[in-house]
Write a structure and sequence with these properties.
- With 219 residues, the protein is an all-alpha fold.
- It has 10 helices and no strands.
Length: 219
């Protein structure tokens, strides 16, 4: 069998054996590449090579780079937001405790990696929001989901007498902004210290003096 036939056979197997698994693998590789290098700086052939798929199989799932970028945002980045923020918010007794736990966990992970690549959603928002309306809409939908989850938890805390805030929506936006900004500063300096400072002040604001715990003091 010649190289052309072999390639077509591989493509057919990729499409028929596990098309969803193949799609997920491409999205996962693209997510890592966009996060590390940026969307515009990552050629599609690099993603194809790292995913180990043929050009035909790749195009079958993602005919354009934009289609892949949107899939990364809506599938993979959305899952990161769910795992990093939404699930801890649902599991924690209060919004303040959820925020403290997320920030402490993020700082611990940054220290273990000894490198700061930034918030995946914020990275793509900064790069793509002015580039294309569809990207902007997809990014904003995730930010809205993130803010809404925090605000809902805050409203439940207020109703139960566990917290006091005049405007849960505004405080939720502030939490997202502090986290995103702190991650950007940490990425710029390649040190967790800026995020640690933001975390300590944010937890203190949400939870009073007792919020200044060692879990947020990571320099």
């Amino acid at each position: 069998m010649g190289p052309g036939r072999r390639g077509r056979a591989v493509a057919r197997r990729e499409r028929t054996n596990d098309p969803e698994g193949l799609r997920r693998r491409i999205v996962e590789v693209a997510y890592a590449a966009f996060h590390a290098r940026g969307y515009h700086a990552t050629p599609l052939d690099v993603i194809r090579r790292e995913a180990g798929v043929t050009g035909g199989a790749f195009s079958h799932h993602f005919p354009t780079k934009k289609a892949l970028g949107l899939a990364v945002i809506r599938d993979r980045v959305a899952r990161t937001v769910e795992q990093t923020w939404i699930e801890p918010l649902l599991a924690a007794p209060t919004a303040a405790e959820a925020v403290r736990a997320v920030l402490a966990g993020t700082l611990g992970e940054l220290e273990r990696r000894r490198a700061v690549t930034g918030c995946p959603l914020s990275n793509l928002a900064l790069e793509l929001s002015l580039h294309d309306r569809d990207f902007r809409v997809a990014v904003e939908a995730l930010y809205a989901r993130w803010r809404s989850a925090i605000a809902e938890k805050l409203r439940a805390d207020v109703a139960a007498g566990r917290a006091s805030t005049r405007d849960p929506d505004a405080l939720a936006t502030f939490v997202v902004a502090v986290y995103s900004g702190g991650m950007a500063l940490a990425k710029a300096s390649q040190r967790p210290a800026p995020l640690a400072a933001c975390a300590e002040e944010l937890v203190h604001l949400m939870n009073g003096p007792k919020g200044r715990t060692s879990a947020t003091r990571r320099r």
